[in-house]
Amino acid sequence: MSGSSAVEREFAGRMALFFEYLGGTRMMGLIYGWLTICDPEHQSITEMATALGVSKASISTVVRQLEQAQMVERVPVAGSRQHHYQLRSGGWAQILRARVARLGPGADAADYALAHIGPDKPSARERLHEMQDFFVFVETEYGDGLAHRWEEYRKRTRDERAAVDRAPRGRMRSTAAAARKTDSDPPR
Fold first, then answer.
1. Distance between CA atoms of 180 and 168, rounded to whole angstroms?
2. At what angle do helices 45-52 and 26-37 cross, to 10 degrees?
3. Domain ranges of the chain
4. CA distance linking residue 46 with residue 51, whole number of Å
5. Tens-place pLDDT, residues 35-56
């Protein structure tokens, strides 16, 4: 990653591993990580390739996948004929919605089997009901409801952080920092 600092390279590398852990590719994580911290916040394929030390073809292919997943968006940049991309607000909620939506075929398969496997196979039916119940539960608890709660939480924490940033140095800043401190934080 020739056009980036050691800290930026480390962060992008950690995001690459994180995306791989989630089932994506390292390149997706590398690009997402870079777009999270780059300046300016929009980058052309050429700029990303230079900063990350990878080919423009690799960037182009993966940035299209990220765009289709609604994680990044193409933005116009005055005076440039190149495509520029930036992170799309709400991308993590979109990932959550997409992951939950992928469970639909499992629920459909359970529905199909329950419609065709009779009461003469009670053990099989019970396992199918468990599967069906699980998918309905996950869709109900973790679908749009959780994504909506996340968006509300995000707005609230952003507003709180903005209030702290606007406050005079001193009491309010230390109070806000203390409120975020957890038991796992090292002592100061």
1. 19
2. 100
3. 6-88, 89-169
4. 9
5. 999 999 999 999 999 999 999 9
